[in-house]
Amino acid sequence: RKMDLPLLALVLVSACGGRVWTAPDYCSTECPQYTVVEKHKDFEERLYASAQWITTKMAGTVISDLMAASSRLAKVASMSGRTGADWPVLISLTNDSECWYSWFVPRDMTESQITDPSVKLWRRPEVSVYVRVFDGTPSIKSGRDNAKILYDDLKKAERSVADANAYTWAGYNTYLSLTHHNEIWMEKSQ
Question: Buried-most residue among 35, 90, 103, 115 (CB within 10 A)?
Answer without folding.
Answer: 103
